[in-house]
Amino acid sequence: MCGIAGIALKPGARIDPETLAALTRALAHRGPDGSGVHVSARAALVQTRLAIIDLATGDQPLFGAGSALVGNGEIYNNPELRARLGEVGFTTGSDCEPPLYLARTAADFTPDLRGMYALAIDDGQAGRVLLARDEFGIKPLYISATARGTAFASEPQALVAAGLAAPGISTARLVELLQMQFTTGSRTVFTGIDRVAPGTTLAIAGEAVTTIAHHDPVWPGEAPRDEEAALAALDAVLADSVAVHQRSDVPYGMFLSGGIDSAAILALMARLNEGKVLAMTAGFDTGTVADERDDAAASARAVGARHERIEIDAAMMWAHLPAIVAAMDDPVADYAIIPTWFLARHAKGSVKVILSGEGGDEMFAGYGRYRAAARPWPFARPMRRRGAFDGLEVLRETGQGWRAGLDEARSGVVGGSAPEGSALERAQREDIAGWLPNDLLLKLDRCLMAHAIEGRTPFVDREVARFAFALPDRLRARRGVGKYLLRRWLERHLPQARPFAPKQGFDVPVAAWIAARADELAPLVARAPIIQEMTVPGRVREIFSRAADKRAGVACWRLLFLALWHHRHGLGGSGAGSVFDVLAER
Fold first, then answer.
1. At residue 411, does pLDDT exceed 80?
2. Exposure pattern of 263-291 as b/e (b: 16+ CB <10 Å)?
3. How do residues 373-397 score in pLDDT, each as one tens digit?
4. 3-state secondary structure of 133
5. Which of 15, 145, 339, 458 is deepest in the core (most CB within 10 A)?
């Protein structure tokens, strides 16, 4: 796990050492255990290392087969790949070394990789640079066209800090952010910086950038249609995924909520580990939202896990929110960044790897919006048909233009290369293509990497997806209950998790916290330059006066997030100090 960056150079172009040093500094939080640089006539590669596998000889760049590689992520089937490749001249035990040799024989080498990754290879034999991102987009990768060539990095802020991209910001994309809490597709909010699409491999030779391959994340495999047989198969698939996601040379633990996804991960970790599993749960100091700590504790006791609980209060949020938001350079206004960031800070003292339950809903049809979208006409409801600010008369831009990226992503799911499947499957695939990489996984990556912690997601796995999407709809959702088969499995293996209890949903008391200080916050947020540019005068203070109302509270949270985010990433502020300190800066 690391940060990577660099530039695929145009013929005759050069990159100065200070630019490489700036990239290294900007990504140091992702890899505090070391750094490396490789420069050739074709490319300059930078890596900052968080040492997880092969602590002794796994420093990067890696060299072999006439090429050099820097990588961010983990290749979970590294042992199997090494056994298959045989004696090809491996010089390290790094999980990122096999891709060097796979890329030598096939430019479209990623179908052999099971894992999460963003890779950059200076391919000396073919005279080109390869960039590859895993099919789910678990690990980030961004590119920008420059006068010297195609620059790339694990985070947009590194490209800006190194002077390889201008810090221009698209307000149209910020409207999308406010309406949906994330942005869709390949374009970021930074003009001139794009995401490499999940599952994509690019080849860069000279000034030409070519897409060599694009692989959809969801290709149904095989799964029994009988419920009992499917339960046994699910057990094998999940146990295999958790086992490979535990491959590590450093200590690991897990984040445990009161939900069934992380409870399933806990049950399997307890089965597969001889020692006690370290499980961590966050809760809040207010009774305005459900507290998951007691439910999580019951599951932890049932398997003998070592359970650590943290409490987040309003004072902690006000003190640290600017730093949390600063970590979200590709912005995600999901209030779950708050507990995720604090849990990562807590975990840093004990482990370097965390397993979590992201992806369970997307793989096994947990959200009610999937079932609503799958209803027969005319009762079906399209997903995300309404934005958070629709009808509030807060934004200057009141049209539906912000939906363009969402509509494009939706048409890509329907018309893509993967099998179309049922209406339920299409709804799931829409989220796997957009919401999962651009909200949930991005949030996890930034919040954990801010503390040099690697996040792993056993549900977001190729083999799990192939099994889940081969299941008949009735084993994914039944009688108004999502994740039916997963709930049945948990009922047998960890009934203390109460898998068929009514879903509470995860919430953070941001509305209550904001409402308590709305009079102080409203004028500070309203005067922020980006808020003045995007909102109707007077409406911000009015919406903050109603922050205790759920819908108004969501709007207030997103406006607060945007004001803090723009201060750091639009205006270049330090982000140091409390919310009130930062917003009071002139």
1. no
2. bbbbbbbbeebeeebbbbbbbbbeeebeb
3. 999 888 889 888 889 999 999 999 8
4. strand
5. 458
Give the single-character DSSP code of 386.
S
Which H or E run includes 116? strand 115-123
- Helix or strand holding residue 213 (H, E): strand 208-214
Half-sphere exposure of 210 (CA within 13 A, CB side): 10
Interval 121-146 mean pLDDT: 96
Q: Report CA torsion sign: 374, 375, 376, 379.
A: negative
- In this model, does residue 413 exceed pLDDT 70? no
Q: What percentage of residues in the chain have a pLDDT greater than 70? A: 97
3-state secondary structure of 62: strand
Average pLDDT over residues 191-203: 97
Q: CA-CA distances (angstroms) from residue 223 to 77, 122, 235, 461, 478?
A: 22, 40, 12, 16, 17
Q: Would you state the torsion angle of the CA atoms of residues 341, 346, 352, 353, taken in this order, to the nearest 10 degrees?
A: -60
Of the candidates 586, 575, 536, 576, the one whose C-alpha atom is nearest the C-alpha of residue 559 is 536
- The closest of 503, 570, 559 to 535, measured between CA atoms, is 559
Q: Is 150 helix (H, G, I), strand (E, B) or coil?
A: strand
The model's pTM is 0.96
Helix (H) or strand (E) holding 563: helix 550-569
Q: Put the strands of the sheet holding 35-39 in their side by side order.
A: 35-39, 43-49, 2-9, 149-153, 142-146, 194-195
- Would you say residue 414 has pLDDT above 60? no
- Rounded Cα distance, 219 and 445, in Å: 25
What DSSP state is assigned to residue 517? T
How far apart (Å, rounded) are the C-alpha atoms in residues 270 and 264?
10
Looking at the DSSP bridge assignments, the partners of residue 120 are 70, 131
- Asked if 443 contacts 332 with a C-beta cutoff of 8 angstroms, the reply is yes
The alpha-carbon radius of gyration of the chain (Å, integer) is: 23
